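note to self — DONT lose this again. spent like an hour looking for the file last time. sequence + predicted structure for the chain T wanted, 195 res
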Amino acid sequence: MRAKRCGRFGRCGTWLVLGFLLFLAAPAPTPEQAPLTPTATATDVSVPAIGRTWPLGTRPTVLRGWEPPATVYGRGHRGVDLAAPAGTPVRAVAPGRVSFAGRVAGKGVVSVELTGTDLRTTYEPVTASVEKGDEVAAGEVVGTVEPTGSHCTTTCVHWGLRSGETYLDPLSLLPPWLLRRGPSRLLPVLDIPLP
């Protein structure tokens, strides 16, 4: 019985060898097709903590954090959603130059290339108050939160960070003292006479 099946398709060994050779000859996946691991995305590019303010001025509620995708086109969350009422001023977290200010798929978007880096931050949905090419300082208003266009269940700002085509955690731009919750506390200074 076995000899009959192999005889019908030629020699079985020949088919196995041809299949194996085709497998070896197949092109390797390009970097765009190769899967990304969350740790590779997070550690391949170092992010300097150059942020000087939150995009909304004060520390907002983070509605959804950064969730890197397992693959280039995989599910994930390529930014951070910050709770913000419509009309709230949106600020540049670090100095840079506006690389885009306009609408994409019906949403207002502002992108800022950060000075001295290959990093770019994005803010959406935002009605821009700046134009492409404008220089902005850390804390400078770049627009206001739009009442619609958000993917959140309430109004929010989606804050993103990219290095080239790689998405990064925008919170990594902020120094640790900006990430802490709670008020600042002053400690007593001992052995200093009162004025």
